[in-house]
Amino acid sequence: MKSTITTLLLLSPLVSQMAQGACTLTCPEDTVCYSASISDAADCWNNIPTNVEWKNNTLNTISQSLENFGFGALYHNTGPPYNLKVPVMEELEATKAMVFDNDFQFQEHLQGILTSLLDAHTRYSKPQCYSATLVMPMAFDFKLTETVTNSGAVQSEPIPYFIPSIYYNQYDEQFGGIDAALFSQPVALINGVEVITAIDSWGSGHETRSNNAGARFNAALRSFLYRSVVSCLVDDAGDGLTITMQDGTEIVLDWLVAFTSQFGQASECVTSDVKVESGVKEMQPNRQRVLLNEGLGEAKITHAELHEDRPDRKVVISPEEAQYEISCFVQQTKGDAGADAAEVSEVLVMKVASFSPNSTGYLAAWTGFTEDASRCLDESFDMIVVDVMQNGGGYVCMGLRLLEMLIEDYWNDHTKVEMKYDLPHSTLMDGWIANVNNPDPYIDPDAVEQILNPETQEPFVDGKAYYYPGRNVTIGGVESWRTNWFCLNCKEAEVLPTGWTPKKFVTSDKLIILSDGTCGSTCASFTRIAQEGNKATFIGAGGLWHQEMDVASFAGGFVCQPLYLATMAAQAGLAAFPNFITNQHWQFGWAAWYSQITPSRPVQFIEQEPAHRTGFWSFPHTSVNVSITTSATSTLYDTVIADSISRIAVESEARVCSNSDGVYIGLVSTLSVALVGLIALVVYDRHKRKQEEGGDSAYAALGK
Length: 704
What we know:
Blueprint: E1 33-35, H1 38-45, H2 52-65, H3 88-95, H4 103-115, E2 124-125, E3 132-135, E4 138-148, E5 154-164, H5 168-175, E6 187-190, E7 193-194, H6 195-206, H7 213-223, E8 226-228, E9 240-245, E10 250-254, E11 256-259, E12 274-277, E13 280-283, H8 287-292, H9 303-307, E14 313-317, E15 326-332, H10 339-342, E16 346-352, H11 362-377, E17 383-387, H12 396-406, H13 408-412, E18 420-422, H14 427-435, E19 451-452, H15 463-467, E20 471-475, E21 478-482, E22 487-488, E23 511-515, H16 522-532, E24 537-541, E25 557-560, H17 562-571, E26 585-586, E27 588-594, E28 612-614, H18 626-656, H19 666-701
Parallel strand pairs: 16-17, 17-23, 23-24, 24-28
Antiparallel strand pairs: 1-11, 2-26, 3-8, 3-11, 4-5, 6-7, 6-9, 9-10, 12-13, 14-15, 15-16, 18-27, 19-22, 20-21, 25-27
C-alpha cells in the first residue's frame, strides 16, 4: 500500500483499457478469495470474449420486455421533481450496432443505460462470471456537529470520519502498514473532491436505489467503498482512492479485490441457476452471489449489542429470532424528560427488515409475519416507532396488512389502503388477453395477490374487463394506451392473524415511522399510504443534510421478468418470446401505482419529505462490523424516542396553556416551549455523548 503525499490518476487509463493478459486469479469453490492487484482483476473481467449471440440475445430480451415497461413512456420526460429524460429503447437499439472489445465492455455499457433510470426495480446485474467486489479497509462514519453562532444561527453539519471495515485485516495482510491517520481525524477530500460531493456524484452515476438524491446518498454511502462488479459500474474505479485527511495528510489506497471461483470464467456466464420443478421455472439464489453478498441491507443488528445493559428495554422478539423479518422491544420512558407531559411511559420499537419473510408458500409467510406483528402489538405501549430503514419490500399485501394493524381508520375500512394500478398495452398483452383472457395478468390464476375491480371490490369477470377499453393517455410527452384501473386483492391477508384484534391504536403524532429513504417497493407502499393519509409522523435518517429527502424509493408497483413473459407467450400460443441465455439478473417495473394526492402521477415520480430529520448515517451493511452499527442504531432509537417525546410535550403544553375561549396565553406557552426545548437539548447532549462513547468502545473492541 502506498502512503504519504502521492498523486493518483484515477481515470487514465480506465481499468478496462489496461493491457489485457490471461486471467490468473483462481479460487476454490465456496470460498471468497482476495487479490491486491486491480490489474489482475481487470485481466479476468476482460477475459470474457465478445459473443455476438449473447449480446444480441440480451438486447432483444430486454428491448422486447421493455415494451411492457410501466414507465416506458414516462421516462422520455419524467418532469419534476427529477426531470429524467432517458430514451432507453433508442439507446438499446443503437447498442445493437456497436462493436465491443470484450463482453465486459458490453455489460458495462448496457448496465450504464439501465442505471441511468435510477430505479432499483430495473437494476441490471451482470452474469456470474463477474463475481467480484472492490473493497476498502474502511467505511464512512459521519458525525453531526452543532454550534450556535454569534448571530444566533445554529451551524449543523455532518463531518466525515472513517471506521475500519470488516476487510481491515484482509487488507492489512495484502498491503500492510495502513496509515493510522486514516482513523484519527476527519476526512477532507477523496480524489481531490469534498467527501459529500464525491459520494453524491458517484451515487448519481452508479447507485440505483433511489431517484431522490438524499435517499440515494444514504445507499451510496456504503456502496462507494464496496463496489460489486456484478451490480454496479466499475470501469471508472481506477487503481484506488486518494484520501486527504483534515491535517493535509494524503493516503493512497489501492482496491482490494474479493472474488469467487466463477470470476473471469466464460463458462460461468451460462451456468444455469434456473430450477425446473413441476413445469414451473424459478430463479434460484446463486451460491457465489450469496458468498459475496451485494450489500443490499442484509446485515442484521444483534440482540446483545442492542439490548445489553438496558434494563429499560423489554425484548419481545430479538433480531436473531426474527424469522419473519419483524423484531421488537418495549422501552420504558417513565421519568424521562418530557415523558409525563407527553403521556408516554412505554414505547414499542418495531424493526421491519423486509415484507418478504422466508417461508414455504405465501400463506405460511403471511401468517408468520402477521402473528409476529401481533405479538409486538399485544404489548403495553403509548407510542410506536416503526423502523423501515433499508427495507427493500416484498409482499404488497403484507405492507397493507401491517398498516391496518397499526392504524384504526385502516383497520375499520380496508379499502382505504387500496392502491390504484394500471398496465401498459403491448403486443404480448394483446395476444394474452385474446387467447387466455384470465381475469388476472398472471400465469397461474390462483397466484398470490390477484387483482380486483376497485369499483365493485370483486375480481374482474375476465381479462378483457380490465384490459379494455383502456385509457388513452399522454405521459412523458408520449401517447399510449393503458389498462383500466385495478387494485390488488388482499382479502386473504385481511383476516390474518386469525382471531386477532388490536388492543389499542395511537394517534398520528405517536406513530413514528423511521426511514432512510431507501425503504422501497412494498415498503414504499407502507410509507406512502400512511403519509398521504396523514396517519403517522415520519422521521428521515441521514441524507444530504439541509436538503430535501424522500421517505421512500422505487415505488413502481409490481415487477416482471423476461422468463415470466416468455411463459405467458407460450401459454397464449404466441411466437416465442426471448429469454436470457446468459445468467445475468434483471427485472423491470410492470404495473404502475398512482398517488392518491397527485392521481395523474405514478408514486415513483413524486417526492414527499419526512416531517423531521435526524442526523444518522451509521447504516448497517455487510462491509461494516455489526457491533458498530448495532450500537449506533441503539443510540438512534434513544434519540428518536427522546426527540419525539419532546415535540409531543411541547404541543401538549401549548394546549394546556390555552384558556377556555381558545385564546393562547403567550408568555406561559413561550416559557413552556423554552423549558421543553432546554430539556430536548439536554437529552440530545446526553445521547450524543452516549453515541460517541458507544462508537469509541465499539471501535476499541476491534482492537484497532
